[in-house]
Amino acid sequence: MSIIEFRQTSKHFGPLKVLDHVDLSIDEGQVVVLIGPSGSGKSTLLRCINGLETITGGDLIVDGLSVTGGKKQLREIRREAGMVFQQFNLFPQLTALENVAFGPRKVRKLSKEQAEEVAIDLLDKVGLAEKAGHYPAELSGGQQQRVAIARALAVKPKVMLFDEPTSALDPELKQEVLNVMRQLATEGMTMVVVTHEMSFAKQVGTRLIFMEHGKIAVDGHPREVIDTPPNDRMKDFLQHVE
Ligand code: ADP
Ligand code: MG
């Protein structure tokens, strides 16, 4: 069953066309890896899914709800689609535990004790239970990103969106974040991941999309299309990331 459906979706910023009549149906449990040149619209595509950007044409349905369906539906969609950014975006004045407990308290209206229980479990899941009392500045980049993943999971999203989650990390810290993502995929989470990590794409991805000028240029099985790029632009692109 499809959980995300772009229907002739377009997005303009003024005169600039960033998404151009995109048709894309993502099924539950799929791990879609999104690649493409800088400026091709990858982040915008992700941001439209959880309503951080407003679409300007067509429709976009997330778990049966349209992003154009008004404030209430949009709130619901935001809750169902967790997002992880390149720059972690943790609240600097809150501890790891408080960062993760924030959503359950505000969105799920849990008590402080219940929210902290949820948060501890999630910090444990990402291997950071012992860092619960630390502030973001006291954590490595990889640890901060794992807290950010735990925070996104804390409101029980149905879909997780990752926008270059390891691009700001030193090589030795990337793997700990990728491992957490791999684990999530194993558990059946529906994921859309913008990344340059082609070995992750091959090992964990179930589908690979190459975007170009706001359109889907290639859509296929990761191993097949990475090993044998179906067009020269994708081939060029892969030579630059690998
Ligand atoms: P990618 O993530 O593939 O690098 P983006 O989706 O970030 O691409 O951006 C696609 C295009 O849209 C770029 O030309 C970018 O400059 C432009 N863009 C993105 N966000 C905005 C914005 N808020 N206002 C104006 N232009 C934007
Ligand atoms: Mg981007």
UniProtKB/TrEMBL annotation:
Residues 4-238 form the ABC transporter domain. This is Glutamine transport system ATP-binding protein. NCBIfam families: PRK09493.1. It comes from Rhodovulum adriaticum (Rhodopseudomonas adriatica). Belongs to the ABC transporter superfamily. Gene3D superfamilies: P-loop containing nucleotide triphosphate hydrolases (3.40.50.300). InterPro entries: AAA+_ATPase, ABC_ATPase_HisP-typ, ABC_transporter-like_ATP-bd, ABC_transporter-like_CS, MetN_ABC_transporter-like, P-loop_NTPase. Keywords: ATP-binding, Nucleotide-binding, Transport. GO terms for molecular function: ABC-type amino acid transporter activity; ATP binding; ATP hydrolysis activity. SMART domains: AAA (SM00382). Pfam families: ABC_tran (PF00005).
